[in-house]
Amino acid sequence: MVAAMKTRSNEITPPPAPAATERKTVVVVDDSSTMRNIIQRELEAAGFAVITFSDGLEALSSLHWMQRPPDLITLDIDMPRMDGFVCCEKIREQEAKGLFGTPEARMPVLFVSANDTFDNRSRGFHLGVLEFISKPFVRGDIARAVSRVLEPQATFAGMTALVVDDNQGVRRMVATCLHRFGLTIIEAENGLQAYDLVRANSDRLDLAIVDFEMPVMRGDEFIHLTRQLPETEHLPMLSISSSEETNAVLQMFRAGATDYLVKPFIAEELLARAQVHLQLRRHVRHLEEMNRNLYDRAVNDALTGLRNKRYFQEAYEEMFARAIRIGIDLSCLFFDLDHFKLVNDTCGHGFGDYVLQTVGRLLKKNTRCGDLAARFGGEEFIVALPSTNMENALFVAEKIRALVEEYRFSDQGHQWRLTTSIGIASLHGHHPKTAAALLQLADQALYCAKDRGRNRVEPPPKRA
Predict the structure, then answer these.
(1) Roughly what angle, to the nearest 10 degrees, separates helices 435-451 and 309-326?
(2) Which of 83, 164, 287, 351 lies most in the core, judged by the most C-beta atoms within 10 Å?
(3) How far is the C-alpha of 409 from the C-alpha of 142, rounded, in Å?
């Protein structure tokens, strides 16, 4: 198996896809020459390179002189000298010593046997066997099983799964299976470690597969704790437990699990259940993205990316009411671009749109997160500054005025210098009775700036 590359702590990305011309090598181990020939012909017809051996001892001794480990091994269970189980155990022991590459690079093993029993499947599961194909099998079964392992699908590429189990072998088996879907895997060996990983990666997790019995924190405790996080409300959590843990499934469901598997399970059962939840997760994410796009269109100005007038008016009313309620100041800046009609008439509306977009970017970059900046219409802009008095509002307004004046607008072969006139007013400085009255004061201040020569910041005119 191609070694999966660790990109950060506890995280494993799917192995890179092989080059189109690279042939994967499969070792076939069976004491029946007829069966070896059947499997070999089927795999070679599917494009795989095949090496055959008559028993486990011959296969194990031959692995050492191969230039590189095979990509996959199929093992019969009942063979003379060394059966499939012992051969697989020896391979895992030697892998752990780094004899076939890195200890993390485990060769995929498929059992092909007429001895398809629960005990054999259970024993194979604990050895990391990915598939169990029963003899007699139908033509094409072997090639399809090998292809599922060695030619991963990219159906869910970009999605991430968290695998939580204190048994490293089980984690590896689950990770190898999920790599077929192109998933990135994050591993944890207990519930407490998993909880920390969820908090750090909640925005990118699409599936969690959680063991029940673990040290430090059990699976049901982890799921219950994780469900308290708002961002995991729709995260599918698939619980796994051994057949002896009779109450585990119920406890996991009570904690918030979405589905379950009983160990030992076969790869196809895991993949089938995971696929259902991943498809639903992808669909939900798509709907969430569509809703975000619809919301953005409803509240943002399409040209500048600032909030639009309708959103501003609703949010500003709430901002004003809050300022009155808790006794903080609130200032408003109302401004437009001087002689903007001349820009459109001289350089065209395309250049005019570029200017408005640039001013929008300057506002976004030079206002605080809690400030409310909007395009009010045409070349008019407005900014609401909570917890800001007249002195500080004057500083912000002067900064914006200077940025516009100093900016060299250049696009489509045109260059232009612009200035802006800004009116400012504040709640504590002018004591308006309503939110609309504060806006009106800032608007009056803007007209004062225009009357006094433009490219300046002015407060509202003093009352007579």
Answers:
(1) 110
(2) 164
(3) 66
Only one residue has tokens 């019995």, namely 213
Answer yes or no: are the C-beta atoms of 257 and 278 closer than 8 Å. Answer: no
Distance, first Cα to last Cα, the chain: 86
Q: Which class does domain 309-458 fall in?
A: alpha beta
Burial of 158 (0-12, 13-18, 19+ CB in 10 A): exposed
- Residue-range domain boundaries for the chain: 19-150, 160-288, 309-458
Tokens of 175: 């990770």
- Which residues have CB under 8 Å from 262's CB, separation 6+? 240, 241, 242, 243, 249
Dihedral pair phi/psi, residue 168, rounded to 5°: -65, -35
48 neighbors 26 (Cβ within 8 angstroms): yes
Quote the CA–CA distance of 455 and 458 in Å, as a whole number: 10
Partnered with residue 133 across adjacent β-strands are 112
Domain at 19-150, CATH from 3.40.50.2300, 3.30.70.100, 3.40.50.300, 2.170.270.10 = 3.40.50.2300
Per-residue pLDDT of the chain (464 residues; tens, 9 = 90+): 333 334 445 676 665 555 545 788 999 999 999 999 999 999 999 899 999 999 889 988 888 888 888 889 999 998 988 989 999 999 888 888 877 766 666 788 889 988 878 788 878 877 878 778 888 888 888 888 888 777 766 667 788 999 999 988 888 888 888 887 888 899 999 999 999 999 998 888 999 999 998 998 999 999 999 999 988 888 999 998 886 677 888 889 999 999 988 887 777 788 878 888 888 887 787 787 888 888 888 899 999 999 999 999 999 999 999 999 999 999 999 999 999 999 999 999 999 999 999 999 999 999 999 999 999 999 999 999 999 999 999 999 999 999 999 999 998 888 899 999 999 999 999 999 999 999 999 999 999 999 999 999 999 987 64
19-150 against 160-288: fold identical? yes
Q: Please report the DSSP string for 88-105 in residue order.
A: HHHHHHHHHTTTTS-TT-
Close Cβ partners of 454 (under 8 Å, ≥ 6 residues apart):
338, 339, 419, 421
Backbone angles phi, psi at 416, to 5 degrees: -155, 145
Instruction: Label residue 11 exposed, middle or buried (CB < 10 Å: 0-12, 13-18, 19+).
Output: middle
